[in-house]
C-alpha cells in the first residue's frame, strides 16, 4: 500500500502546499491523509504502508519558490525543528526506534516563498502543485 501524507498548516500560506497536494491525490483516487507534522501522527499515518510519500514546504535561504526537491534519505534528527515543532526526521527516528517505519519513505519538499499567517499559496508555489501531484501519483509505479 502507498500512502501520501500532506504536511502543513492551512493558515501559513505556502506551508499548506502539502495539504493541498494530499487533497488532490485523494481526488485522483489515491490514499492520502493530511497531517500537522507531529511525529506520532506521521507514524500512525504511514503504519502498514509499503511506501509512504510525505509532501511538505521547506524554507530555504536563498530560496527558489516552487522548486521541488525529492529525497529518500533524511538527515538525523539532532534536535531539528520545523515550522511544525518537531520535524520529519524526529518522526523517522522515533519510528525506527519503535520498528514502525514503512518499507520505503520518500519526501517531496517544495521551497516556500511565504509562510507568514494567511491563506492561499504564493503564485510560484501554486504553479508547482500540478507537477508535484503528478510526481507523487507516479511515485512507486515504476522500478
Strand content: 15-25%
Shape descriptor reads globular
Work out the count of structural domains.
1
Distance between the termini: 16 Å
User: Please, what is the CATH homologous superfamily?
Assistant: HybD-like
Count of distinct strands: 7
Quote the CATH topology. Answer: Rossmann fold
Report strand order across the widest sheet: 2-1-3-7-4
Spans with pLDDT under 50 lasting ≥5 residues? 79-84
Mean pLDDT: 92
Structural class: alpha/beta
Main β sheet profile = 5 strands, mixed
**What is the H-and-E element order?**
EHEHEEEEHEH
What is the top-level CATH class?
A: Alpha Beta
Q: Can you tell me the CATH architecture? A: 3-Layer(aba) Sandwich
Portion of residues in helices? 25-40%
Alpha carbon gyration radius: 14 Å
- Count of helical segments? 4
What's the quick description here?
The chain has helices at 17-27, 39-46, 88-97, 123-138; strands at 2-7, 32-35, 51-58, 68-71, 81-82, 85-86, 104-111.
Structure in words:
This protein has 143 residues and is an alpha/beta fold. The protein has one domain (2-138): Rossmann fold (3-Layer(aba) Sandwich), CATH 3.40.50.1450. 31% of the residues lie in helices and 24% in strands. It has four helices and seven strands. It has helices at 17-27, 39-46, 88-97, 123-138; strands at residues 2-7, 32-35, 51-58, 68-71, 81-82, 85-86, 104-111. Helix 1 links the parallel strand 1 and strand 2. The chain is globular. The model is unreliable at 79-84 (pLDDT under 50).
Amino acid at each position: 500500500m502507498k500512502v501520501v501524507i500532506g504536511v502543513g498548516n492551512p493558515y501559513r500560506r505556502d506551508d499548506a502546499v502539502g495539504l493541498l497536494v494530499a487533497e488532490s491525490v485523494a481526488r485522483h483516487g489515491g490514499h492520502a491523509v493530511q497531517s500537522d507534522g507531529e511525529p506520532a501522527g506521521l507514524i500512525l499515518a504511514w503504519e502498514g504502508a509499503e511506501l509512504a510519500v510525505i509532501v511538505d514546504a521547506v524554507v530555504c535561504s536563498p530560496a527558489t519558490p516552487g522548486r521541488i526537491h525529492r529525497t529518500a534519505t533524511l538527515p538525523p534528527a539532532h534536535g531539528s525543528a520545523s515550522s511544525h515543532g518537531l520535524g520529519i526526521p524526529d518522526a523517522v527516528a522515533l519510528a525506527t526506534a519503535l520498528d514502525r517505519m514503512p518499507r520505503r519513505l520518500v519526501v517531496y519538499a517544495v521551497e516556500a516563498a511565504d509562510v507568514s499567517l494567511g491563506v492561499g499559496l504564493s503564485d510560484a508555489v501554486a504553479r508547482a502543485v500540478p507537477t508535484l501531484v503528478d510526481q507523487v501519483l507516479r511515485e512507486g509505479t515504476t522500478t
